[in-house]
Specification:
Helix content is 37%, strand content 27%. It is α/β, with parallel strands linked by helices. Helix 7 links the parallel strand 11 and strand 12. Helix 1 packs across helix 11 and helix 5 runs parallel beside helix 6. The longest helix has 18 residues.
């Protein structure tokens, strides 16, 4: 079984639209949306949820007023200033300011502070018109997105093994932070979607360096390359210098936006268009790459 993770150094490069189109073209696969902080693959694939499970991560301290004697130890020890005292001398913990370190829980002399686990979001197993989909929704202002990314990737792999599917196509998070590291670890290959701008090149290089650090084969796709051919050529020179193949150059096409408005991928919305043909050729190059061909072809 192989997993292709589609990432981008920055947001707005067209990563999700390209991921969804590749998932339509590919066969014998499960699609996974690991961009849990801002998941939007469901807008194109319109999943029918079959299983919903709460995602729990981290803890928040809560003072049990019936056991609290008002000694103030918790307020003294809390370095995040999450504990306050009201006019009646009662202590409370602000759930927003609490970092879940547990110091107040451990040192409360009356054991008057509970430490429940947080429900941070939900993860789903769904059916879509193109096949099964594993995805998640992280709650507002919640943390542990890297942990949730790891969880849904594990679930996607378990689902693929159970149903004898040879490929996972994962829509990864943008950037180079913890969620991205959680998304690419153990992948067969990464596809880095970039755009021909100064910021696009800078952030693409950071994503490429991350993939090289973890020794994961990388490929590059230049979206909207014709908006700045000079910068597109600079991207290609970078890819060649670092041993990464450029698997596709996608021209700017308003049909991408029209397809999104219609809730469809481009290859469904305009199957005979030039860009759809390019996307199919991109998938052919990915599928026949040395990192992917064993289980995909």
């Amino acid at each position: 079984m192989k997993e292709l993770v589609v990432i981008s150094g920055k947001g707005g490069t067209g990563k999700t639209s390209i991921t969804a189109s590749l998932a339509v073209i590919a066969k014998n696969m499960v699609v996974c949306d690991a961009d849990v902080d801002a998941a939007d693959l469901h807008l194109l694939l319109q999943p029918d949820i079959r299983k919903e499970t709460d995602f729990k991560g981290g803890n928040t301290a809560v003072i049990a007023s019936e056991r609290c004697t008002g000694c103030g130890t918790c307020m003294t020890l809390c370095r995040f200033e999450a504990v306050s005292e009201d006019v009646q001398g009662k202590f409370r913990i602000d759930s927003i300011d609490c970092e879940g370190c547990g110091v107040c829980v451990d040192f409360c002399p009356e054991k008057a502070i509970d430490f429940p686990e947080n429900t941070c979001g939900q993860w789903f197993v769904s059916d879509t018109r193109i096949g099964p989909m594993i995805h998640a929704r992280l709650g507002l202002a919640e943390e542990n997105s890297g942990k949730l990314v790891t969880l849904i990737r594990q679930e996607a792999r378990s689902f693929a093994e159970k149903h004898h599917l040879g490929l996972i196509i994962t829509d990864g998070p943008p950037g180079v932070g913890c969620p991205v590291i959680a998304a690419i670890g153990g992948a067969a290959a990464v596809l880095i979607v970039t755009e021909p701008t100064v910021s696009g090149i800078h952030d693409m290089a950071r994503a490429a360096e991350l993939a090289m650090h973890f020794k994961i084969p990388g490929m590059i796709c230049v979206n909207k390359y014709d908006l700045n051919p000079e910068k597109a050529a600079e991207i290609e020179r970078y890819a060649e210098h670092n041993g990464m193949g450029v698997v596709g150059r996608i021209p700017f096409d308003p049909a991408f936006t029209h397809a999104m408005v219609a809730g469809r991928t481009l290859v469904e919305y305009a199957p005979d268009s030039e860009v759809s043909m390019i996307l199919k050729k991109i998938w052919e190059q990915i599928a026949t790459s040395s990192a992917m061909m064993d289980d995909v072809c």
